[in-house]
Protein: DedA family protein
Organism: Sphingomonas crocodyli
Amino acid sequence: MAGFDHLLEYGAWAIALGAGFEGETAAIAGGVMAHRGVLTPVEAWLAIAFGALVADELFFLLGRRFRDRPFVQRARQKPAFAKAIGFVERYPNAYVLLFRFLYGLRMVSPIAIGLTRMRWRRFATLNVIAALIWSAIFVTIGYLFGPAVDRLLASLAPYKTELMIAFPIPGTCFLIWLWWRKRREKRRAALVSIEAEA
């Protein structure tokens, strides 16, 4: 149980919390835990659905009640936000059922929906259905591929120290690259403004 020992103490509550923030990763972990007998498949399914549902309801209410607050304003500036608004205006029911499966739109979608005229009861009803379907799919994936996950974790166990050292390196390189790119864009913008003034 090398990869999920830290979840055992809290079980269903841990994966419910993870579902609200990590999404598919926590749902698959719940399926692996069900495969190992830590939880029953139904417990894992309901815990993941509950966590995802609560998180989306909170984000919906943030959009609905606090539309002028900095958190919501920052979300509105993301390119994915405009896409979410466009989809929910054209296909409101289908979008609530499907946004969890759309890459890059998971977090901003409930906030965007909260800014529309969709009533909370309608959103909540569709959200329950969507959370149950989404949870069932990813918990099943984790359950079916649990043996493969166990084998992978067991094969990596002897290299745990090396992996703990190696994993931060790509992330650090990525952050340096982002910093370099932003700096280059600022320089270009400054040159363009100087040329425009000239």
